[in-house]
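A favour between colleagues. Tell me how you read the following sequence-structure pair.

===
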Amino acid sequence: MKKVLLLFISEHSGHHCASLAIEKALHELDGEIETLNINSFNYTNPILEKIINRAYMGVVQHRPELWDYLYDNPGVLKQTQKLREIIHKFNTGKLKTLLDDFKPNAIICTQAFPCGMVADYKKTFDLKIPIVGVLTDYAPHSYWIYHNVDQYIVPSQETGDKLIANGIDSSRIKAYGIPIDPKFRNGSGRDGLCEKLGLERGKPRVLIMGGTQGLGPIKELVRLLDRSRLDLQIVIVCGTNKRLYNWLKARPHQKKMVILPYAENIDELMQVSDIILTKPGGITTAEALARGLPMLIVNPLPGQEAMNTKILLQAGVAVKAESPEDAGVLLLELLDNRTKLKVMSNKARSLAKPESAVDTAKLILELMR
């Protein structure tokens, strides 16, 4: 029996979603395969994980310019190299125990931290297990660069070209796309989904998301859209943001609103929507492309989301709002211009890679032969 170890960081993150999608695809292709999906940061450094997660959330919410400076900064990369080596060495014991106990035939990393940790372990102990690094954003950063990673799965060829420019051989790069749940390969009829979700067929349907953690100016957007002149329907996914969910549920609304906590049926919500207002996280972006869903980007985080935004704007599948008020104006313009929405939708479908998780799973199975 073949075994695959999948490593991510942070529960309810895009990295976790990608690892779950790959795991699901592996089981679809091989019913006998054994998988182990682990939050590597929590496994190796549970206390440090909590500290870093809190620090990260504080920085991106209150000092985004600091995150912009830190993200993929060559100087920071060089200054932190010794620290990363110390952390990797400190984690050697736990990683050895995990590998000795599970005995995987392949290791899949959907975030740079576990990828670096395993790559250093492989180099130090001459590990003979293939490692696959899976990037979940369109702009790679330097923390992904390890020359003993066997294969990289990247969102696009342009992403792969940036890895090649940093010395990674082109034969080790596969532009399969960001792995998303295999169910995005299929779609139900919109009319039936409207009935299932309690939405009317004749009115515009707007989906609002702030990633798995429900970030962004969602309250402001809801206030503005609730007062707008358009007779629209709004679906809001709050993710793990319980305060936002409770605030929305307690508030009276003029418009038809479907307010959801963490949702498992994002594929259906996107299938039935006319446009999505969101932050451009990698997973959300890949899912929206797979559904041909035009994007209105609001308040992207500096770093990876700012880079994702630039690529999406250039591709013509998204527009960017500089503020919630600006988002309200742009939304009305787009919903009044169905031709433009259709063009954006077609461009999105042309860029989509709904088979991404399945293609990645096929590669993993091939590497283990």
About this structure: The chain has two domains: 3-180+354-367, 184-351. The first strand starts at residue 3 and ends at 8. The radius of gyration is 21 Å. The chain has 18 helices and twelve strands.
